[in-house]
Amino acid sequence: MAAKYNNNNLVQLRDLSDKFEKSTPQEILSWAIVNYPTITMATAFGAEGCAILSMLSELPGGKDVRIFNLDTGYQFPETIEMRDRIAERYGIDVEFVRPEETVEQMQARFGGPIYGTNPDECCRLRKIEPLKRALSGHEAWITGIRRDQTPDRAVAEPIEWDSRFGLIKVNPLAHWTRAEVRAYIGINDVIYNPLHDRGYPSIGCWPCTHQVAETDDERAGRWLSFAKVECGLHVKP
Ligand code: SF4
Fold this sequence. Notes:
- The protein has helices at 10-19, 25-35, 47-58, 77-90, 103-110, 119-135, 178-188; strands at residues 40-42, 66-70, 94-97, 140-142, 159-162, 167-170.
- By secondary structure, the chain is of the alpha/beta class.
- It has one domain: Rossmann fold (3-Layer(aba) Sandwich), CATH 3.40.50.620.
- A 6-stranded mixed β-sheet has the order 3-2-1-4-6-5, sandwiched between helices.
- It is globular.
- The protein starts with 9 loop residues before the first helix and ends in a 49-residue tail after the last helix.
- The mean pLDDT is 92.
- The structure holds iron/sulfur cluster (SF4).
- Iron/sulfur cluster (SF4) is lined by residues 72, 74, 115, 119, 122-123, 126-127, 204-205, 207-208, 231.
């Protein structure tokens, strides 16, 4: 087993990550599973997450990885249904991680929904705080982010130290393009959220996700009335 990487050996971690630039996502995942037995994965059941779940189902130890979804209470029904479809197809159970307050409790406290007035606070309460709790006790987590998605993600490494949440972050698709993800899904008949075929290339909560044209940026439909392009999970401090 290789040495453990953390924020005390960032140079060595960067060297290692550079070596993974030419590796397949499966090779990156395999390394991570072996070296971080407590590794976990967050998925919003997007195309990238479904591709990774398909890969994990075929890797030794892949089905033992704890997978969770941040169930904000505002997800599309089609997204929620992905949990059962994933279990049936890949034999992987995805745990729903929920905020401390239900949508009804939060909206009662604020006098209504706040996604239209203060989406940063809404994302903090319904995504970031639950993520912090979900990552507690884990040495590493897997995400489906790609560099070509947003400016914050453009600097993502295959393996990096997540200084925001204090653990190793594994981004096996960091160096893949949207076209490569689509190709993998097509070749491997990966199941995916049907909303992707209805004008939603990027799917988040229903109040903050809108249909876009095929030629639009894939995240153009997220938080339409705001400059916001990230919920905050992948923003480096
Ligand atoms: S994406 Fe929208 S509804 Fe979901 S947590 Fe963020 S602001 Fe709230």
